[in-house]
What we know:
The protein has helices at 23-36, 50-60, 80-94, 113-125, 139-148, 167-175, 195-204, 208-217, 230-237, 246-253, and strands at residues 3-6, 9-12, 16-17, 40-42, 68-73, 99-104, 129-135, 153-159, 179-183, 222-223. By secondary structure, the chain is of the alpha/beta class. The chain has a single domain, classed as TIM Barrel (Alpha-Beta Barrel). The protein has an eight-stranded parallel beta sheet. The chain has a two-stranded antiparallel sheet with strand order 1-2. Helix 4 (113-125) links the parallel strand 6 and strand 7 (129-135).
Amino acid sequence: xxxxxxxxxxxxxxxxxxxELRGRVCARVVEQALRLGYRHIDTAEIYDNERExxxxxxxxxxxxxxxxxxxxxxxxxxxxxxxxxxxxGSLARLRLSEIDLxxxxxxxxxxxxxxxxxxxxxxxxxxxxxxxxxSNFTVALIEQAEQLASEPLVCNQxxxxxxxxxxxxxxxxxxxxxxxxAYSPNARGGAQKDAVLARIGAAHRKSAxxxxxxxxxxxxxxxxxxxxxxxxxxxxxxxxDFDLSGAEIAEIHSLAHRDGRLVDFAYSGSPKWD
Length: 274
């Protein structure tokens, strides 16, 4: 298993995103992913599938300690007493005693970041989460969070794929020793339609989707592609048997454009993106 370490957190480079997966479909896909060798599963309280994720983990036969499980707190629960209650609610639905990585899902300017981070750090100190981090944070918010947090923030989970330039945020994360975790790493299916990625893929006998994922992991970025199709589970993790050249990486970098962002939502207006 390929792992990147950030501030003591061993994060598998490829995980399964579960956004929009629900009910029996979610349980089936997560269980199959674990049987195939996935050891990183990403969920969130807003996804309404934590029960199914926890159930899949139990029936998969994989040891709990072998799986890196992430969940995320929704911004409406960022007030300190609500954040702790939300964390306990996630653990109850997952039927786990602790989560590997607990994230703030989106920034919430309505509640002081110092209060929210204080509560998040307390959740870690009380043993409910092994590691904590943030998601959808800008450079400015990363700088604030790093100053305010009394516990290590191990990652920033952001939208990242070849069509969106996230170099500023990535650089800020690296300056603080934070891992970057890429959601929508295949641009919600956009990667497989791209001619440049398809051409590079043909040279390596890989799909355009695999090229998009390889481009990220070769930069040390964690990917959590979502799929509801079992055949794509194997494809998404078969990206460690080849290398992209420097010229290929540069060509993929050049695909980024101003309208590349697909996810633009926040609890109270989107942040000012970098």
